[in-house]
Write a structure and sequence with these properties.
CATH class of the domain at 66-142 and 155-227 in chain B: Mainly Alpha
Number of helices of chain B: 6
CATH topology of the domain at 66-142 and 155-227 in chain B: Four Helix Bundle (Hemerythrin (Met), subunit A)
Shape of chain B: elongated
Radius of gyration of chain B: 21 Å
Order of helices and strands of chain B: HHHHHH
Order of helices and strands of chain A: HHHHH
Distance between the termini of chain B: 44 Å
Largest interface: A-B, 84 and 84 residues
Helix content of chain A: 55-70%
Radius of gyration of chain A: 26 Å
Oligomer: heterodimer
Distance between the termini of chain A: 61 Å
Largest sheet of chain A: none
Shape of chain A: flat
Number of strands of chain A: 0
Number of domains of chain A: 3
Chain lengths: 159, 227
């Protein structure tokens, strides 16, 4: 009974004025904020903040702010009861779990199977085999200096 | 309870109103039905987020392992077209939310205009994507072992294009599906199906469209602004 009563209380009764607020100002402000943040994203991409990882994290942080604005304003989470926000945030929790545990795995493999970085700037850790320039040898039969590696990789990809 | 989310159908409950035909018998009233539909849509969006999270993780793994290849490869992407498409999708999110609000306020003509605008902006996005794709097809900047670009000078550039085509491809399919649903909404709005008493399909499509925009917000810096 309580569930039904609560549902009834939160719902406008017959004859009651229904207030559908006009949020146009919010939407206009939001789209302008998103434009500004897009500009900031492009500008931030031109700056080196120290390392590849830091640059990536800053770009993702700005994107997260933009995504938050879209979810709060355009997707109405700001004005809603908590349930939809809980569903949304729970997915982000599982994404974080998924990504962090994969990183823990990959980033600690070097302790078990040491390998030297195959490319400059690559952090130590699990290293895949060196990659070819081409996967498919260029047409015309002109064997490039990487032709052998290319054939090998092509063969791998085919299986 | 959300201010905007209460359809006027709530007041039509238990009365023979012209809108009560939308109310299914297992729901108490239209407002409850609307909220339940929304929860269902959010659960679907969660599965979409998890789908894309796998792709994002694959991107992060490859990018941290081959930063040089990713930096070199992303120079083949036209940054201004990426910015253009970002702005197009943001504006389409705005027109979509305006369509939802117009329906909630019973402004059906405005709803139609905004739905047409959203559909058109989706078309602009796909057209820009088509220009970008055809340029890459021409140059052989393709995914996996289809990569045949001869000017590559860093090993592993094809990894970037594998991620580029799979991520933008799946995102593009979502845009096409969204445009199909919006076309359906336009048809049904012309038939005067929707009003402030019942606009659930427009609202749910709006949520979907915003999520597709939200995913592009992450794709754009990852693919176009590698540094």
């Amino acid at each position: 009974m309580s569930v039904e009563n609560e549902a009834m209380e939160s719902i406008p009764h017959h004859g009651e004025e229904v207030h559908t607020h006009n949020h146009t100002k919010w939407y206009v402000a939001n789209i302008l904020a998103l434009f500004v943040l897009t500009g900031i994203t492009v500008l931030a991409a031109g700056i080196n903040f120290g390392s590849n990882t830091v640059n990536l994290m800053i770009a993702m942080a700005i994107a997260t702010v933009k995504a938050g604005l879209v979810a709060l304003i355009f997707m109405h989470l700001l004005w809603e009861k908590g349930m939809n926000a809980v569903i949304f945030l729970s997915s982000l929790f599982f994404v974080a779990l998924f990504m962090s545990f994969t990183f823990f795995d990959v980033e600690t493999r070097a302790k078990i199977e040491p390998a030297t970085p195959s490319e400059p700037g690559v952090s130590a850790g699990y290293q895949p085999a060196p990659l070819p320039l081409y996967v498919v040898a260029p047409k015309g039969g002109a064997a490039s200096e990487h032709g052998e590696a290319a054939k090998a990789a092509g063969g791998q990809a085919a299986h | 309870m959300s201010d905007i989310a209460i359809p006027a159908g709530g007041q039509a409950h238990a009365h023979a109103s012209p809108h009560s035909r939308h109310l299914q018998h297992h729901f108490h009233n239209s407002a409850q039905q609307f909220e339940a539909s929304k929860i269902g849509m959010w659960l679907f969006l969660v599965t979409e987020i998890l789908l894309f999270s796998g792709l994002f993780l694959a991107y992060f793994m490859l990018q941290t392992r081959h930063p040089q290849a990713f930096i070199e490869a992303h120079h083949h992407l036209d940054r201004s077209l990426g910015v253009l498409n970002t702005l197009v999708l943001l504006v389409s999110s705005f027109t979509m939310v305006m369509a939802v609000q117009s329906a909630a306020l019973n402004r059906i003509k405005a709803t139609l205009i905004y739905l047409y605008a959203t559909f058109g902006l989706g078309g602009v996005f796909l057209f820009v994507k088509y220009i970008e794709y055809s340029h890459k097809f021409h140059d052989g900047l393709l995914l996996g072992n289809l990569f045949s670009y001869k000017g590559a000078n860093v090993p592993g550039e094809y990894l970037f294009f594998s991620m580029y085509f799979v991520m933008t491809g799946i995102h593009g399919i979502h845009i096409i599906v969204g445009m199909g649903v919006i076309a359906y909404l336009i048809w049904r709005t012309h038939q005067r199906v929707f009003s402030s008493a019942y606009y659930t399909p427009i609202d749910l499509t709006g949520l979907y469209w915003h999520l597709v925009d939200l995913i592009w917000i992450f794709l754009f810096p990852l693919l176009y602004l590698v540094s």
